[in-house]
Amino acid sequence: MIQPGSHLLGLEGMGAREITHILDLAMSFEEILERSVKKVPTLRGRTIVNAFFEPSTRTRVSFELAQKRLSADVVNFSTGGSSLSKGETLRDTIANLEAMKVDMIVVRHSMAGVPHMLAMHTSASVVNAGDGSHEHPTQGLLDLYTMRGRLGDLAGRQVTIVGDIAHSRVARSNIWGLRALGAHVTVCGPRTMMPKRVEDLGVEVEYDLLRAIRKADAINVLRIQFERHGTPNFPNAREYMRLFGITNEVLRHTKPECFVMHPGPMNRGVEISPEVADGPRQVILQQVTNGVAVRMAVCYQFAGGVTQGTEEESAPPRVPASRAASGRPKPGSAPRVAAGA
Ligand code: CP
């Protein structure tokens, strides 16, 4: 089981029990977000630095909201306003953060492995908010949470990930997480965007979009990572849309209950049509909403929420057994609220 003070560097190697524990915690925090006063004292006295060395909208705001909902002291830090722009090395920046006795560092960086390097040089908990093309574990967890919320147990479910697999940290975290929970994963995209030996990750590879989505319970559409392409990997956006874009016409070939996810930001008209992006089959903004509860669970778990204050103050609200078992509320079951939360 995850120890307070440990790191969340990726979903690779994480087992079903640990993942399910975080998803269940997120379910208990979700209830707080429905209240008129969306704040609990769970991380009072804890200091968290959000260090974003790469642009972000969803992840950064979501982490900050999650931390503030838990009453942590939050400091936001980005490359432009830091001494990195004056030539300071990342190693020295980390040493300085460490010297200020922070409890947790949430880090996003364009280079794979930076959170791992940071974890070796700090006693704070490190949470990876996306490192290059490697992993984006909290996006993976919120995607799992969204799928579990709609499908219940993910074991045996079929999830198809479509797009720029080679450059996608979201794809990798989804694959590790889904495989750990027993789901079947198919990846689909142009050959130029498919990593070598991707089958070794335990996924099926399909280059024909209609075959890839036919049996899917969920489709996760990836953003084309134009900024990570050295040279163009496809002739033009129209050609990509014709072969791999998710449109209403493509969705006619899926199971009727199959839903569409996208981590954002979207390239509308390239990997997803505006009709699908705004249509009844998508759950894209639901993913964003779920991201706050999932990141509350991550901050609680990794910033050591149980070690601060009294047990009662620190504990997250309890989830009724009816919801925790399936990931879906039973009709008519209202979440219970713990005292002090
Ligand atoms: N999904 C995601 O990571 O979005 P941001 O880049 O806006 O954080």
Describe this structure in words.
The protein is of the alpha/beta class. It has 2 domains: 16-132 and 291-317, Rossmann fold (3-Layer(aba) Sandwich); 137-286, 3-Layer(aba) Sandwich (Rossmann fold). It has 13 helices and 9 strands. A 5-stranded parallel beta sheet has the order 7-6-5-8-9. The chain has a 4-stranded parallel beta sheet with strand order 2-1-3-4, with helices on both faces. The longest helix has 19 residues, at 284-302. The structure holds phosphoric acid mono(formamide)ester. Phosphoric acid mono(formamide)ester (CP) binds next to helix 2. Residues 56-59, 130, 136, 139, 263-265 line the site of phosphoric acid mono(formamide)ester.
- The percentage of residues in β strands lies in 5-15%
- Mind telling me the C-alpha Rg? 20 Å
Helix content: 25-40%
For the record, what CATH class of the largest domain applies? Alpha Beta
User: What is the assigned CATH homologous superfamily of the largest domain?
Assistant: Aspartate/ornithine carbamoyltransferase
Small molecules held by this entry: phosphoric acid mono(formamide)ester
Uncertain ranges:
307-313, 328-341
Mean pLDDT: 88
Biggest sheet character = 5 strands, parallel
> Which strands sit side by side, in order, in the main sheet?
7-6-5-8-9
Going by CATH, the architecture of the largest domain would be: 3-Layer(aba) Sandwich
CATH topology-level fold name of the largest domain? Rossmann fold
Order of helices and strands: HEHEHEHEHEHEEHEHHEHHHH
Number of strands: 9
Query: Number of folding domains?
Result: 2
Shape: globular
Structural class: alpha/beta
